[in-house]
Amino acid sequence: MEKLDFYKHHIENPLINIINTRAQDNNFERQWIQLHVPNRDLQYAISQLTTLNLRLLQQIKLSEPVTAEGLIAELDLKMGVITKNVNKLSRLGFVTRSHEDIKQATFQLTKTGSKVVTIQNELGDLLDQQHARLVEKYSPEELTIVADFLKDLQEGH
């Protein structure tokens, strides 16, 4: 029972706290971006973005100009999801499209969309630095054990 008690107190509870924090603040990235743009109108437009919208902006930047088929292949999404989200990004002024028919269109970021992706990348760099400091404390073997444990935990539930 010692291992189970250790698990409950030192693993399960911290994991639940991490998950609950993430669930309550799943818009952390969006909020961080909003804080780092001075324009009120842009802050409002950013407040309308979902996590998927932010992922799409990143992918469009990586692949631009990109087609709906390209986004489907890269993000493993359905055409309807791409259509809905690209239309929203276009309406909010983050993306331009070359053609009205989404199946024939290519997408590119506007200056505003590029600014958002630049700020996203700044956040990503900061998080990478934090994570690098965190994992620096552990050996590759220890990290492998943690990863294996989390994989087993995920598969067991």
Topology of this protein?
Elements: H1 2-24, H2 28-35, H3 40-47, H4 51-63, E1 66-67, H5 68-75, H6 79-91, E2 95-97, E3 106-109, H7 111-135, H8 140-156
Antiparallel strand pairs: 1-3, 2-3
Q: Please, could you describe this protein's structure?
A:
The chain is mainly alpha-helical. The chain has a single domain (about 1-155), classed as Orthogonal Bundle (Arc Repressor Mutant, subunit A). The protein is about 75% helix and about 5% strand. The protein contains 8 helices and 3 strands; from the N terminus they run ααααβααββαα. The chain has a 3-stranded antiparallel beta sheet. Strand 2 and strand 3 form a beta hairpin. The chain starts with a helix and ends with a helix.
- Write out the CATH superfamily name: Winged helix-like DNA-binding domain superfamily/Winged helix DNA-binding domain
Q: Give the structural class.
A: mainly alpha
> Over all CA atoms, what is the radius of gyration?
20 Å
Distance between the termini: 20 Å
Helical content (DSSP H or I, runs of 4+): over 70%
The helix count comes to 8
In the CATH hierarchy, the architecture is: Orthogonal Bundle
Question: Approximately what portion of the residues adopt beta-strand conformation?
Answer: 5-15%
Query: Going across the major beta sheet, what is the strand order?
Result: 1-3-2
- Overall shape: elongated
InterPro entries: WH-like_DNA-bd_sf (IPR036388), WH_DNA-bd_sf (IPR036390)
Protein name: HTH marR-type domain-containing protein
